[in-house]
Inverse folding.
């Protein structure tokens, strides 16, 4: 089962044999090839490194058909990406995920804030504030302001 799982995990993470070999501090891809063919099984230290790299237990790596657990090819695995972030970025991703989960659970979405300091301006060219008429330049400004909130 190990050989099948190793190949499955390597391909799932879009790694060539040589790339996996480098991550495991191997000199060449030949060991990876032999492991995937089932000719040899790596020593326990290397098995541990492989399990950590792919975030699976050694028991599952050796005994469980990991490919059968991947029911959906659209399932996102954020762990490999998240683990490579620095602490500040991890905190930012975590906070965003918490915020989105709270919104999802409460069915409330927040309106995005502008990137720059906000200012109060008329948002419609037909506004009757002070019987004001708008020039083409002002209308362009209003549209530009609104574009900050619209994802294209």
């Amino acid at each position: 089962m190990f050989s099948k799982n190793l190949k499955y995990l390597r391909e799932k993470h879009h790694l060539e044999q040589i790339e996996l070999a480098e991550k495991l501090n191997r000199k060449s891809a030949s060991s990876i090839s032999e492991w995937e063919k089932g000719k040899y099984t790596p020593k326990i230290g290397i098995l541990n490194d492989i399990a950590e790299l792919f975030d699976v237990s050694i028991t599952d790596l050796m005994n469980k058909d990991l490919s059968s657990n991947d029911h959906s090819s659209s399932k996102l695995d954020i762990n490999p990406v998240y683990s490579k972030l620095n602490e500040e970025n991890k905190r930012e991703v975590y906070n965003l995920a918490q915020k989105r989960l709270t919104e999802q659970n409460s069915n409330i979405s927040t309106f995005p804030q502008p990137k720059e300091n906000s200012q109060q301006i008329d948002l419609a060219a037909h506004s009757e504030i002070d019987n004001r008429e708008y020039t083409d330049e002002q209308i362009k400004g209003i549209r530009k302001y609104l574009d900050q909130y619209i994802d294209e």
User: Anything to note?
Assistant: The chain has three domains: 2-69, 78-110, 114-152. Helices lie at 2-12, 17-23, 30-37, 44-54, 58-63, 79-82, 87-106, 136-147. The mean pLDDT is 80. Residues 114-152 form one domain.
